[in-house]
Amino acid sequence: MTRNNMDRKADITRETNETQIRLCLNLDGDGTSNINTGVGFLDHMLELFAKHGFFDLEIEAKGDLHVDAHHTTEDVGICLGQAIYKAVGDKAGMRRFGSFTVPMYESLAKVDLDICGRPYLHYETPLDFGKIGEFDIELAEEFFHGFVNNSGTTLHINVPYGTNQHHIIEAIFKAVAKSLDIATQMDNRITGVHSTKGSL
C-alpha cells in the first residue's frame, strides 16, 4: 500500500528531565502553525518553516531555560525529525530529493537533502558565535543535528556568504522548509520507493 491515500501526519511526545515537548505535524497542510517553545527566536524560525513548507505544525515545549536554550532547541529538532520520519512512512511514491536556494538580503542559503534513511549533516556557514536576542547562534546547528539523526535525512546546508546572523539563519530555515516540501511531494510517476534498491 502506498502513502498516496493516507494521512501523512504525526504526533510526537518527548519527556525528559530537561524538556517536555508535544509536536503535531501534517505534511500536507497549508502552513498553519501554533508554536510555543519558550525561545522566541526558535518560535519565529519554526513558524516560517511551517509557512514556507506548507506544513501544519503545532509545538508546545517546556524546557530548562533557566540553564539556557540548548536542550529545548536540540530536543525540538529531535521531535521534528521523529515527526518527519513517522509522517513519510514507507516513502512509497515520494520524490525523496529536494533542493532550494533562498536569498535573504545580503545572505544566501542553499539546501540539498535526501530523505533516504541515512542521517548526515553538512553545515557550512559564516556563523561563528554570538546571540540573536537570547538565542545562541550555534544552536541552529544543534537543531539540525537532532533533526537529521531522527528523520534519517542527508542534509547539506551551505551559506556561501552573508553577514547578518538573523538573515543567515532565517534563510537556512526557509531553504530547508522549501527543500522538504519538494522532497515529500507525491509523484504519480513513482511506483513504490524511488530507489533502484527497492527500499530506503
Gist of the model:
This protein is α+β, with helices and mostly antiparallel strands and 200 residues long.
Which value, in Å, is the CA radius of gyration?
Answer: 16 Å
Number of strands: 10
How far apart the termini lie comes to: 16 Å
How many domains?
1
Main β sheet profile: 4 strands, mixed
Shape: globular
Strand order of the largest sheet: 1-2-4-3
Top-tier CATH class: Alpha Beta
Secondary-structure class:
alpha+beta
Which short descriptors sum up this protein?
single chain; 200 residues; alpha+beta; Ribosomal Protein S5, domain 2; 4-stranded mixed sheet
Please describe the topology of this protein.
Elements: E1 9-15, E2 19-26, E3 33-36, H1 40-53, E4 56-63, H2 70-88, E5 97-104, E6 107-115, E7 120-124, E8 131-132, E9 135-136, H3 139-151, E10 153-161, H4 165-183
Parallel strand pairs: 3-4, 7-10
Antiparallel strand pairs: 1-2, 2-4, 5-6, 6-10, 8-9
